[in-house]
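Weekly sync, protein design subgroup
Attendees: M.S., D.O., the rotation student, P.L. (late)

Item 1: inverse folding check
M.S. brought a backbone from last month's batch and wanted to see whether the design step gives back something sensible before we order anything. D.O. pointed out we never logged the input encoding, so this time it goes straight into the notes. Structure tokens as presented (300 positions):
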């Protein structure tokens, strides 16, 4: 009888073991959503596209646990995703992981890091990133300085913004529409708000009409385009969330007007908005959907 009981127990244990093994295999299959570097890179791209930036670090940890070695392209994808999600600590984590593996960040990654600092309104850290970049022997490009300008502008720091402008002009680099956008944002974000802020912004819009095109030198990097990172996102413009919408929603030649209308909407200055409308009319330009949205925001 005892033997029969023991046999039954062994049968039960064997059955339980088979069921447990099957369950474990199923759970592993569900968790193991990627098996190699290519599949993990696809996962990172998908998470960013779905705006689930908060899962990038978890997915990266899974990749490391699976013994998959990340590449430079992997870190580009991860840091671009954290930039879009304004996740500064995750961005620094991936930078440190990259260095640990002997991969030095290039100018594109440093630009993403500076941009992420701007999204987090951490201009001091953005300046430190530029210093780190120079100490590492990575030469800043035009996008680097515009990222830094807009990072300082997000914090309302006028002095560093104008210092960057002076450095650019002394180096023979003309100001483009994104520089003027940063100058406008800096005046809007400065605290306390200056009494003549509306006048300053309108003057900048007027000055921007004569900007010398430097798009060839500071235009969209080919890698940024491949990673679906627009200049509006890179420089933290208020149009960043609208740039990928259908054609006609956003007219890029009105970038400076976009930032100015957004500023006056935030400042609740209807008189200044009316001046901008008249300036558009004088140039025989119609407002796009984004500008109309800013006007409607104020009215509502």
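Designed sequence read out in the meeting:
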């Amino acid at each position: 009888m005892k033997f029969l009981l023991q046999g039954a127990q062994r049968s039960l244990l064997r059955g339980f073991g088979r069921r447990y093994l099957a369950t474990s295999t199923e759970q592993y299959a569900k968790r193991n959503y990627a098996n190699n570097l290519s599949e993990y890179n696809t996962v990172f791209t998908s998470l960013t596209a779905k705006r689930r930036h908060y899962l990038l670090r978890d997915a990266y940890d899974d990749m490391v646990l699976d013994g998959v070695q990340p590449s430079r392209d992997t870190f580009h994808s991860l840091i671009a995703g954290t930039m879009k999600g304004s996740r500064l600590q995750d961005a620094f984590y991936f930078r440190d992981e990259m260095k640990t593996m002997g991969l030095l960040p290039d100018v594109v990654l440093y630009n993403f890091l500076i941009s992420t600092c701007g999204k987090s309104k951490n201009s001091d850290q953005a300046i430190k990133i530029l210093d780190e970049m120079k100490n590492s022997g990575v030469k800043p490009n035009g996008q680097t300085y515009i990222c830094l300008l807009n990072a300082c502008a997000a914090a309302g720091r006028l002095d560093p913004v104008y210092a960057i402008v002076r450095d650019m002009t002394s180096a023979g680099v003309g100001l483009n529409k994104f520089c003027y956008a940063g100058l406008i944002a800096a005046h809007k974000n400065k605290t306390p708000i200056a009494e003549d802020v509306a006048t300053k912004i309108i003057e900048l819009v007027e000055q921007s009409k004569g900007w010398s095109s430097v798009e060839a030198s500071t235009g969209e990097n080919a890698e940024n385009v491949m990673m679906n990172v627009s200049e509006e996102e890179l420089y933290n413009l208020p149009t960043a969330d609208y740039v990928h919408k259908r054609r006609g929603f956003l007219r890029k030649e009105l970038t400076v007007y976009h930032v100015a209308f957004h500023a006056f909407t935030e400042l609740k200055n209807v008189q200044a908005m009316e001046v901008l409308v008249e300036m558009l009319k004088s140039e025989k330009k119609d407002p796009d959907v984004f500008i109309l949205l800013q006007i409607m925001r104020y009215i509502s």
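Discussion: The chain has a mean pLDDT of 86. The longest helix spans residues 2-31.
Action: P.L. to compare against the previous round before Friday.
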